[in-house]
Amino acid sequence: MMMKKWIWSLIALVAAVAVARAEPPNVIVFLVDDMGLMDTSVPFLTDEDGQPKRYPLNDWYRTPSMERLAKQGIRFNNFCAQSVCSPTRASIMTGQNATRHGTTTWIQPGGNNKGKNGPPEWNWTGLKKGDTTLPGVLHKNGYTTIHVGKAHFGPTGSEGSNPLNLGFDVNVAGAEWGRPKSYYGEDHYGNHPKYKKHRTHNIPGLEKYHDTDTFLTEALTLEANAQLAVAVKEKKPFYLYMAHYAVHAPFNSDPRFADHYKDSDKGKNAQAFATLIEGMDKSLGDILDQLEKLGVAENTLVIFLGDNGSDAPLGPKYDHTSVAPLRGKKGTSFEGGMRVPFIAAWAKPDPKNPWQKKLPIPLNAIQEQLGTVMDLYPTILDLVGAKNPADHVVDGYDLALQLSGKTNPDRSEAFLMHFPHEHRSSYCTSYRTQDWKLVYDYNPGGKGVAKHELYNLKADPFENDNLVSKSPEKFDQMIAAMVRQLKAENALYPVDGDGEELLPKIH
Ligand code: CA
Predict the structure, then answer these.
(1) d(Cα 379, Cα 398) in Å, to the nearest integer?
(2) What's the gap in Å between 91 CA and the centre of ligand 1?
(3) Residue 5 has pLDDT above 70, yes or no
(4) pLDDT tier at 450 (50, 70, 90 boundaries)?
(5) What is the rounded distance in angstroms from the CA atom of residue 273 to the CA atom of residue 375?
(6) CA of 152 to the centre of ligand 1 (A)
């Protein structure tokens, strides 16, 4: 027994020395805007035996590069994001829940988007210069930090609107905009003189592609690959935040892929959405190829995810259509609004690579335990050996154990999505544990009875059977647990007509 322990210690020491001598690992976060769990040919949902289960939407979308990445890594079937853009993006940057960083709905470039009864003090100006951010910490640890694509971290004129103020060394095409006016080079991505009366959502910095047929997704990919080549030439480890504008509306059809969908019975927008997905997927493949070409694939961790539930234009927003079989879509409190695809893989698996020894990722694996957008920050810092500043609170968990295919017994199984604003689902908090999900309705208008919801996700994963009246004890227990977490994360609440805070009531 003693001997065995001694041998293991020696192996651990040898691995640690190998890592200390190796070139630092590179990290790519490949973030797709408004991409939900079912917008892909990779099946993320599983059957009772934990095996991947295909649904019709998996056969509608074409994502061969995601299939390639999924084969060489692990995907999560239970990964949660906030229901809209900015809250998730700030969580990836800070490792904090939206309640704590305070950006609880999407940032409107032109002003405060709190909604009629939203909390007046919510963080509508987003991230600021000097805030602790993932790229900021990585930069201090010797990384070249590259931002490509959609930023949406702060409103027009704010510090946060410019990624260079938030820890990035390079910014390609990032601004205060949450979507492009146009994906077409012919439209100068929204900068064409024809738009001069309403000059918004114009994507900056891609002038060399104006008046070409380069789709925005392709332009961003070419620029990202060029930045990777620069970082490798300078022999610096890199962090690439590849945040595609795709697949957010407007649903501009990508002509490169339109033929694949034209004979279907689905409508024009649904077809265009599928082309946006396929263009994003080509980008993933092109970046993986570039990593191999540059000789850094073995040393590069790729994390692929969506920023909120799907916005696929496939039917009514609260039904089982856009993200079928899941219910709801982006902006709703249903699972279709908060579940996103997540894949982590080394760009080229190589068991001999010291970083892959430190973080071994099984091939073609599925992780069933919860993961959240808050987890990227601690996971990446831990991998590269960077320290989180002592005064910076982190709500996420290091995913290392889960990425290696194991269950982490020490992580929280709860996910809190607090949305004290107006949208498709308004003024509500979703509180989700392993088997149960509560949606607490603040009902600020005071009209009728608040419509709280309680689902048993294990028995009813598609949220058809509201158990509030059938399971009153569980309902009370879930509210109490939700309130504890809201308090711990310093949540702000909706207000009534007199400006008084509406606190959730424990029965
Ligand atoms: Ca989004």
Answers:
(1) 4
(2) 13
(3) no
(4) confident
(5) 28
(6) 10
119 and 41 belong to one structural domain: yes
Q: How many residues does the chain have?
A: 507
Give the distance (Å) from ligand 1 centre to CA of residue 90.
12
Q: What are the phi and psi torsion angles at 33 (to 5°)?
A: -75, 130
For the domain that residue 185 is a member of, what is the CATH number?
3.40.720.10
Distances (CA, A) of 386 to 238, 240, 377, 441, 495: 14, 16, 11, 40, 40
Q: Is the pTM of this model over 0.90?
A: yes
Question: What is the Cα Rg of the chain in Å?
Answer: 22
Task: For residues 88 and 307, give the distance between their C-alpha atoms in angstroms, rounded to a whole number.
Answer: 6
Distance from residue 84's CA to the centre of ligand 1 (Å): 5
Task: Let me know whether 44 and 125 are in one domain.
Answer: yes
For residue 175, the CA-to-ligand 1 centroid distance in Å is: 15
CATH number assigned to the domain comprising residue 461 = 3.30.1120.10
pLDDT exceeds 60 at position 243: yes
* C-alpha 337 to ligand 1 mean position (Å): 10
Which protein residues have their CB within 5 A of the ion that is ligand 1?
33-34, 85, 307-308
Which domain-ending residue is among 370, 403, 436?
A: 403
Spatial separation of the C-alpha atoms in residues 428 and 439, rounded to whole Å: 7
Q: Can you say how many angstroms the Cα of residue 450 is from the centroid of all Cα atoms in its chain?
A: 30
Number of domains in the chain: 2
**Under 8 Å between Cβ of 336 and 322:** yes
Distance (Å) from CA 243 to ligand 1 centroid: 10
Which CB contacts under 8 angstroms, 24+ apart, belong to 484-491? 485/414, 485/416, 485/431, 486/99, 486/416, 486/418, 486/429, 489/97, 489/99, 489/100, 489/395, 489/416, 489/418, 490/99, 490/100, 491/99, 491/418, 491/420, 491/429
d(CA 84, CA 402): 25
Summarize pLDDT for 157-190 with one digit per residue, the tens. Answer: 999 999 999 999 999 999 999 999 999 999 999 9
Inform me whether the pLDDT recorded for 8 exceeds 80.
Answer: no
Do 213 and 247 share a domain, yes or no? yes
Q: Residue 444's domain spans which residues?
A: 415-488
Q: Residue 31 C-alpha to ligand 1 middle, in angstroms?
A: 10
Q: Are residues 69 and 138 in the same domain?
A: yes
Answer yes or no: is 361 within a domain: yes
- Distance from residue 308's CA to the centre of ligand 1 (Å): 5
Average pLDDT score over residue span 52-58: 98
Residue 493 forms part of a structural domain: no
Classify residue 373: in a domain, yes or no.
Answer: yes
